[in-house]
Amino acid sequence: MVSQQIRDKVLKAHAHGYSVTEIAKWLGITIDETRAIIIHGDRRPRPALKPEFIEPKLF
C-alpha cells in the first residue's frame, strides 16, 4: 500500500516517459506495485463535462 503522494509521483513520472524499473528504483517500491499503479491509474473522480455554450454576437 502506497500513499497518494507516491501514486501521484508514479503517474507523473510515467507520463514523462520514465520506465517502470526507473520509477520503482527512484521511489523505493516494487516493480509490481509500480505496474499496478500505472494500470489502475488515478482513481480520483473526474469532473463532469458540461456543454460549452457560445453566446452569439449582438450587432
Mean pLDDT across all residues, rounded? 89
Q: In one word, what is the shape? A: elongated
Largest sheet: none
**Distance separating the two termini:** 60 Å
- SSE class: mainly alpha
Low-confidence stretches: none
Oligomer: single chain
How many helices does DSSP assign?
3
Strand content of the residues, in percent?
Answer: under 5%
Radius of gyration using CA atoms only: 18 Å
Counted beta strands:
0
Q: Helical content, roughly?
A: 40-55%
> What order do the helices and strands follow?
HHH
Organism: Bifidobacterium callitrichos DSM 23973
Protein name: TPR repeat-containing protein
Summarize it.
This protein has 59 residues and is mostly helical. It is built from three helices and no strands.
Provide a descriptive summary of the structure in words:
This is TPR repeat-containing protein. This protein is mainly alpha-helical and 59 residues long. The chain has a domain of 37 residues. The chain is 51% helix and 0% strand. The chain is built from three helices and no strands. Helix 1 runs antiparallel to helix 2 and helix 2 crosses helix 3. The longest helix is centred in the N-terminal third of the chain and has 12 residues. The termini are far apart. The model has no long low-confidence stretch (mean pLDDT 89).
